[in-house]
Specification:
Blueprint (H helix, E strand, L loop, with lengths): L19 E8 L4 E8 L6 E6 H11 L2 E2 L27
Amino acid sequence: MEALAPPRDIEPAPIDTSRRFVRVTHERDSGFVEFDFAIGEPELFVEMILAREAFAAFCAEQRVEPFPPAPAQTEPPGDFDWRLGDATGTRIR
């Protein structure tokens, strides 16, 4: 199988991997913090959960900055506008 070469006229956008972003999405009564974490590009993030003390250490070690404000949603949410945390307690058939 022959590997495809990327087009020669496309330059990849520069990504500053030294920038780290965090957005707290929920704090549980049990002492856990749910948050989004991104490296370089805030639009591409992972959902994570850590104990409060571990979250504070993680933020200090990663030297995080808050996510930029999200643009206002002008349309109703679509089928793919959900988070893993939204599925908690939801039974999927």
